[in-house]
Amino acid sequence: MEGETVEVAGLKFTPYLSQSQIASRVGRVAAEIRSYYAGQELPILLCMLNGAFVFAADLLRALQMEVEIEFIRYSSYQGTASCGEVSEILGLRQPLRGKRVLVVEDIVDSGLTMARLMQELERQGAKEVRIAAMFTKPEAFRGNYTVHHVGEELPNRFVVGYGLDYNGLGRGLPELYIRTE
Ligand code: 5GP
């Protein structure tokens, strides 16, 4: 329930962003993206599974642009700590050579996962790669690239809800929760 502490897979979490706060972030990000691509060739959206499916669904509807969306998988997380290793990208069903791509990510933490994905998209010959991330953790970020569209910058703490899980659970929480200290 909104405003209350929750327990997910044995860990306690405190409310951090409400549904309406999240909706206003998504609306702002959608407006930024619309204005960037206005009058230009539109990108293919690449939704990073699993976590970004909730953000991607909201963003796609808020965008009101005629765009295609693909779902890919690329994961580096186990439990509450990034293990620093990323595996291969799965699920891409069309060649990206010469295309503009907008990666839709739930959260950019250390940025390693996204760095590997960008390398791969460049290798595949994408013409332009931009990133929309619902959340970032600037204190943890170790990348040397720009996250172009950001919903909310978070402190360097573990969060669940709005598509993000802890050990597979908590993705369906409509608000964002932060681990209780
Ligand atoms: P990175 O490679 O940037 O360190 O990690 C990116 C991935 O780790 C994200 O796509 C997300 O799946 C996961 N992740 C990073 N921070 C959090 C967090 O606070 N909560 C959850 N549930 N997942 C996170």
TrEMBL record:
Reactions that this protein is recorded to catalyse: IMP + diphosphate = hypoxanthine + 5-phospho-alpha-D-ribose 1-diphosphate; GMP + diphosphate = guanine + 5-phospho-alpha-D-ribose 1-diphosphate
One GO molecular-function entry: magnesium ion binding
Domain of life (superkingdom): Bacteria
One GO-annotated biological process of the protein: GMP salvage
InterPro entries: HGPRT, PRTase-like, PRTase_dom
Residue intervals of the Phosphoribosyltransferase domain: 18-166
Single GO cellular component term: cytosol
A UniProt-annotated Pfam family: Pribosyltran
The protein, known as: Phosphoribosyltransferase domain-containing protein
The species this protein was found in: Candidatus [Bacteroides] periocalifornicus
Taxonomic placement: Bacteria, Pseudomonadati, Bacteroidota
